[in-house]
Write a structure and sequence with these properties.
This protein is about 45% helix and about 20% strand. The protein is of the alpha+beta class.
Length: about 80
Amino acid sequence: MKESLEFIISEILGHQETKIEESVSSSGEIVFLIEPKSEDFGRLIGKNGKIINALRKLIRVKATKEGKRVYLKVQPGSP
């Protein structure tokens, strides 16, 4: 699932330099922390959050097929 997320984000931003951390909570939920560079932050979020919401829906569909729960969090990274 992380590979799919990395591919989609690299296509949106046009490069591979986005940091993505994966962690699993005690209840089994997978949390992806995405840290784009500060100049790419707005491009990843999109106007009114449309891009990040679409990305969350895509990942949620893939996770549902695998019987998992997934959350995406975006945090601005270094410049």
